[in-house]
Specification:
Layout lengths: L4 E7 L12 H15 L7 E6 L3 H13 L6 E7 L2 E3 L5 E3 L9 H4 L1 E2 H10 L4 E7 L12
Parallel strand pairs: 1-2, 1-3, 3-7
Antiparallel strand pairs: 4-5, 5-6
Helix pairs in contact: 2-4
Length: 142
């Protein structure tokens, strides 16, 4: 198979909502993983990183990333942040401007991510989730 190797790495470690504790390891983890994946001798991935940014920018970046992939590409998506569940048990990923009382409008919905992955043309997709409640991501995925 030919095609590109593309990785999107998201690390959110600082939050405006004081109910969310800072996660310094999220930022360090993204930086270290990016170096390994981008190394031509190891991963040889085209790496896109997003660190400590807000929901709108994350959503637009994720949509662009999955939308630009070809059938033969290998995509790797990694997110390290707080995982949050709404009252119905739906998983959200916190961004720097997430408010825990307004998850639907201020956090990255796992359902949004699943839909983008389903629409992505790349047949080979890897998802790594470093967050609380990461097991909730599997609901609704193929």
């Amino acid at each position: 198979m030919t095609g590109k190797r593309a990785a999107m790495l998201i690390g959110i470690g600082h939050f405006v909502d004081d109910r969310l504790t800072d996660l310094h390891s999220s930022i360090n983890g993204v930086s270290e993983l990016a170096a390994v994946l981008a190394d031509p001798q190891i991963g040889d991935y085209e790496v896109t990183t997003m660190i400590d940014i807000g929901t709108h920018e994350v959503m637009a970046g994720v949509e662009r990333f999955f939308g630009e992939r070809g059938v033969d590409d290998l995509v790797l998506f990694y997110v390290s942040t707080h995982g949050l569940l709404d009252p119905r048990g739906r998983l959200y990923f916190a961004t720097s401007d997430t408010r825990t009382d307004l998850l639907a409008s201020t956090a990255l919905s796992s359902q949004f991510l699943v839909e983008l992955m389903d629409d992505c043309r790349a047949r080979r997709q890897v998802v790594l989730i470093d967050s609380s409640f990461s097991g909730a991501f599997a609901r609704g995925t193929r």
